[in-house]
Write a structure and sequence with these properties.
The structure holds two protein chains of two kinds. Chain A is an all-alpha fold. Chain A is built from nine helices and no strands. In chain A, α2 packs across α5 (114-138), α5 packs across α7 and α8 packs antiparallel against α9 (211-239). The chains are: A mainly alpha, B alpha/beta. The A-B interface holds A 143-144, 146-153, 157, 161-162, 165-166, 240-243 and B 45, 48-50, 66-70, 72, 74, 76, 78, 80-85, 93-94, 97-98, 126-128, 146, 152.
């Protein structure tokens, strides 16, 4: 309860600043928050919801694939040095390549539909996950394994009882960072070969010089980010309770 | 019963243990003392199955050591608890890894031992919410709950304050006496060795080897009657340790 009160208070502060900016600028490029909210109320279900739902599902799916693949690779690289020796040169070489530049190729190979957008999100965010997970496995103090080793535990048990829980907090941090990246990337990819998604909606409103619609879209995109962050926080509360 | 014959361990080229022999009879408790860096912990890690590259022979109940086959109770100086598991889950970890299925009577036994080491009411805490002494109680309870073939302790009480340490020594001995497992107890304190060891083994190194093993008539005696004999024995141990360091 206190938490939601805090959120309301902070949003109020943002809107007060926004209102002040809008009054000072006196230019349609920065409409007042009240105007944007009225518009949002009117068009959310009729115009925006479909775009929002599609964008959210693309981000969620992209992040899910990224976390799954990235965790598996990161865990294996962290725990088995030969895997790390083989894969880390590949990761180090491909991570810095600006993969957004591969968008045309991905679109040719996978078409203009969902697959190409999700693939771009995955190939951009997966590296953060791989590297974070690998390093956090390597940073587990070796004493942590001793009790289990002396019990004759096999690798599967060690993964389940030590490695997964020990890396979970850092994995969640990587997911939070990747969420921001995923939204930016999605925004970009939704400007090509689609007429659905928040990226399309916002840029289309801009082209039509409909600033009120554009700000409505930006607010919704912010809301999507907030939703994902809250979901990750909830996950954190459940699985990393021991940290508090 | 633990039998170590001609044990040698290398870390890369560094010789940590060499030609080490040790025997702990069934229901015996051997306190191993020696200066820092002499290889006490290495010896314990070999017995625990953590170090599995070694020369020589390590037998537990006449079979070569294998942590998958033997039940090894291990209590480490840093407690060795998993911070994401609650007290009760930590205490049951040994059984869980060993036999997967935990029956009602296992849980009851675990509750009994935990209560005996004074942890009633703390079952749902995480290790981060416990004091050092409480964590050490969990570690000791965990080792006894799995009904081990052998019990290994690596300076378990040296991180505790003096009063808690004495309490924990008494508690350990109390539980140990009702379930006498063959035990190796590593310590650097002569007082602790003389209180908790039926036999005291003095180590030197590197490379780690055993100087001598003596019978200890003062095992489990908090109030020593024959003070003269006690002091002379303690002096002898201290001289041995000093002689090693020279």
């Amino acid at each position: 309860m206190r938490n939601s009160f805090r959120y309301v208070l902070i949003f109020l502060l943002i809107f007060v600043l926004w209102q002040a900016g809008s009054v000072a600028l006196k230019n349609p490029i920065l409409p007042s928050p009240a105007a944007v909210f009225c518009n949002l109320k009117e068009i959310f279900f009729s115009k925006i919801a479909i775009h929002a739902a599609l964008s959210l599902s693309r981000i969620a799916l992209g992040l899910a694939v990224s976390v799954l693949a990235g965790s598996i690779l990161g865990l294996l690289m962290g725990f088995y040095p030969p895997v790390d020796r083989f894969l880390s040169p590949i990761v180090y070489f491909t991570y810095p390549i600006p993969k957004i530049a591969l968008l045309p190729i991905v679109m040719i190979l996978l078409g203009l539909g969902e697959a190409s957008k999700i693939t771009i999100i995955v190939i951009i965010t997966v590296f953060q996950i791989i590297i974070t997970v690998r390093d956090s496995v390597k940073n587990i103090p070796k004493e942590m394994f001793y009790s289990l080793k002396s019990l004759g535990a096999n690798d599967a048990t060690i993964f389940k009882e030590v490695i997964l829980p020990a890396t979970m907090p850092e994995l969640l941090t990587a997911v939070r960072l990747s969420t921001g990246t995923a939204i930016s990337v999605l925004f970009f990819t939704e400007n090509f070969g689609t007429t659905h998604g928040m990226g399309y909606f916002i840029m289309d409103s801009w082209m039509r010089v409909n600033y009120i619609d554009m700000y409505s879209g930006i607010l919704v995109l912010g809301g999507i980010g907030l939703l994902i962050f809250l979901a990750v926080d909830a996950f954190d509360m459940i699985f990393c309770r021991w940290k508090r | 019963m633990i039998k170590v014959r001609n044990l040698g361990v290398y870390y890369d080229k560094f010789k940590a243990l060499s030609g080490l022999n040790l025997e702990v009879e069934k229901g015996g408790i051997v306190a191993v003392i020696g200066p820092s860096g002499c290889g006490k912990t290495t010896l314990l890690y070999v017995l625990a199955g953590i170090i599995n590259k070694f020369e020589g022979e390590v037998l537990i109940n006449d079979a070569p050591i294998d942590p998958r086959r033997h039940r090894i109770g291990l209590v480490l100086q840093d407690y060795g608890l998993l911070p994401w598991k609650r007290v009760f889950e930590n205490a049951l970890l040994g059984l869980k890894v060993k036999k997967k299925v935990i029956e009602k009577k296992d849980k009851e036994y675990a509750e009994y031992i935990l209560a005996r080491v004074g942890l009633s009411g703390l079952f749902k805490r995480y290790p981060g919410e416990l004091s050092g002494g409480q964590k050490q109680r969990v570690a000791i309870a965990r080792a006894f709950i799995m009904k081990p073939d052998i019990l290994l302790l690596d300076e378990p009480f040296s991180a505790l304050d003096a009063i808690t340490r004495e309490e924990m020594q008494d508690l350990f001995l109390d539980v140990w006496k009702s379930d006498s497992v063959s035990t190796v107890f590593v310590t650097h304190s002569t007082e602790e060795a003389m209180y908790l060891g039926k036999k005291i083994t003095v180590m030197t190194g590197p490379p780690g080897r055993i100087v001598t093993t003596i019978d200890n008539p003062f095992f489990g005696e908090r109030e020593v009657k024959d003070t003269e004999h006690y002091i002379s024995m303690q002096l002898k141990l201290k001289k041995l340790l000093k002689g090693i360091q020279k």
